[in-house]
């Protein structure tokens, strides 16, 4: 472990998270769901979506955007659609409220959708699709973000970093899971290159004139690019449509307009689809899931990695140890905030 | 139009296609659905999936693989799932049989799936998702092919060229549609480079040792790559799982084993998902579809193209003219085959 990291016990991380969020005004439910999500990410050493994100959640309150006590409202829209209105709360409580309903609907109808509306969204999508796969269901999740990414052949930002996540249940194993941004680089990486004054990788951004650039400052004035040229651009368009107009929520451009310079986490919707292998295949579903294993063996058998393998290894290591590594500067800031609050309330 | 092309009237193309397929043994239904699909593609100047594919369909019979008179069997699996067993026929008649059922189920449940099993599949996916979007529904379609493509970080073929298609209905306009292979290059393009003895584009293939190559012969001994590195590889894995084990059908590796050197079009399954905007949003669906238009305007307004724009322009042009351009060598072969049959039957 590098010098930039220190470890924190799981229980201590939970107490720190829930304490900070509650003190800031989040309801018990939000404090619990947010903490659970960032602790899961931290245990997997997914640092960009770990404890660090507690700070964004505190800023959401400080900048007057979020309703920290919002109670999600579950609406049964159709036999296979459940909608959860997050009512300007963070998305995670809305997901918790919708999870049992989408699972039941998927088992009954064969597949089902969960539309989360009016939520602030800071989290990775893999914890959600993994939760669905843990119930033996296949899951797809998409959401938009802020308009930072230009379409292929264009020069101005339209799309968000628009992640696409997928999970497939594996009998007796962690599910096969991927969760990637359709942008060529993460937004946070652009900021990192700015601070470090290092060039961006080729092919990740354009300047304000639409010309390729590796200068992170010029990229911020211009736009990020999607991965995979016109194919990634097409996928990103699809995600705007599915997580925006289809479910009656904001596109990345609309989310950015809503943000209005507050620079907080995006406000928008999320679409999750769950598919039930047993409904498709009945008794044969079990054997068919095994045929999925043959595919994974063919991939791993030639030395290629499954997308979730690194996270799962970290999870196993940290679960055994009962602690997780966190960047020192993140822990310092969280503990400073906790101490400040302690002083205030004494 | 280049010298390599000549035009053929729409009615003549239909008569040629249906005549050839019927003479070869296809049932009236298969002859009609196959011809309709290749004529649509040809009208859009999508030459790789146009009249040229009639030849593959004839070879399918000549090599004893397809059942040219198979009647698809529709099975209502669950409130939101319809399965159509193509019974070793070409996929298109199975799609026709399933289309009204998936549309009705999507309207009732909010979303629905059509699983087509045991089919030979040669066609592009865009004609199918476009047909669904013409009914006001959003559509996603995936299918596998033959194992030609290596996973990111690997060296041996596991995936097919695994296309992903999407359609979004646009009031008063052709739907927004994309349909792309998750391979970095089309299989047909590799063959073209072999014949022309020209190098492949960089980053599209590896040799038998897993090293990058632009030599098309070495690529055939090695493997093609996915687009978008590990992200494209993840998507391709998802497509294997959704169109294979989820619906109880073959993966690309299994399809290739089934082919057993016959070198015909892949035999496997296809998964189509349809989502109903009206079920998600009720009365607000119409306004939300308009918000999709704002997104398209933002893309096209900066000079970027929507993925289906070129095809739609060709369609408009050829529909006005009542004729379509076809490669001369393709028309020559089709007419030669038609004449041979004529002589045989006189």
From TrEMBL, chains A, B:
Q: Look up the domain of life of the source.
A: Bacteria
Q: Which residues cross the membrane?
A: none
Under the heading InterPro entries, the entry gives: Mal/L-sulf/L-lact_DH-like_ah, Mal/L-sulf/L-lact_DH-like_NADP, Mal/L-sulfo/L-lacto_DH-like_sf, Malate/L-lactate_DH-like
Q: What are the protein's UniProt keywords?
A: Oxidoreductase
Q: What GO molecular function annotations does the UniProt record carry, in alphabetical order? A: oxidoreductase activity
An example Pfam family from this entry, by short name, is Ldh_2
What is the E.C. number?
1.1.1.338
Q: Which family does it belong to?
A: Belongs to the LDH2/MDH2 oxidoreductase family.
This protein is called (2R)-3-sulfolactate dehydrogenase (NADP(+))
List the source organism: Martelella mediterranea DSM 17316
Q: Which gene encodes it?
A: comC
């Amino acid at each position: 472990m590098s010098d930039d990291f220190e470890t924190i016990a799981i229980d201590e991380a939970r107490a720190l998270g829930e304490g900070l969020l509650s003190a800031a005004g989040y309801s018990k439910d939000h404090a619990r769901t947010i903490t659970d999500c960032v602790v899961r990410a931290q245990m997997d050493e997914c640092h960009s979506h770990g404890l660090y994100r507690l700070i964004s959640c505190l800023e959401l309150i400080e900048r007057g955007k979020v309703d920290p006590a919002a109670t999600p409202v579950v609406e049964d829209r159709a036999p296979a659609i459940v909608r959860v209105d997050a009512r300007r709360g963070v998305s995670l409580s809305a997901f918790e409220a919708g999870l049992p309903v989408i699972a039941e609907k998927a088992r009954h109808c064969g597949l089902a959708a969960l539309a989360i509306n009016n939520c602030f969204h800071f989290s990775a999508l893999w914890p959600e699709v993994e939760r669905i796969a843990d119930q033996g269901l296949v899951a797809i999740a998409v959401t938009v973000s802020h308009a930072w990414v230009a379409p292929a052949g264009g020069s101005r930002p339209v799309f968000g970093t628009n992640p696409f996540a997928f999970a497939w249940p594996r009998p007796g194993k962690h599910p096969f899971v991927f969760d990637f941004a359709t942008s060529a680089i993460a937004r946070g990486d652009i900021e990192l290159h700015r601070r470090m004054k290092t060039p961006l990788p080729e092919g990740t951004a354009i300047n304000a004139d639409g010309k390729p650039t590796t200068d992170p400052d010029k990229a911020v004035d211009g736009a990020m690019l999607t991965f995979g040229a016109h194919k990634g651009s097409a996928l990103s368009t699809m995600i705007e449509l599915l997580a925006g107009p289809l479910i009656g929520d904001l596109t990345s451009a609309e989310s950015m307009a809503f943000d209005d310079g507050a620079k907080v986490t995006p406000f928008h919707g999320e679409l999750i689809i769950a598919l039930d292998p047993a409904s498709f295949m009945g008794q044969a579903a079990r054997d068919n899931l095994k045929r999925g294993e043959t595919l994974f063996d063919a991939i791993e058998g030639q030395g290629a990695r499954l997308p979730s393998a690194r996270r799962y290894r970290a999870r196993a290591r940290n679960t055994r140890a009962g602690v997780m590594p966190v960047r020192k500067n993140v822990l310092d800031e969280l503990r400073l905030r906790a101490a400040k609050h302690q002083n205030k309330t004494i």
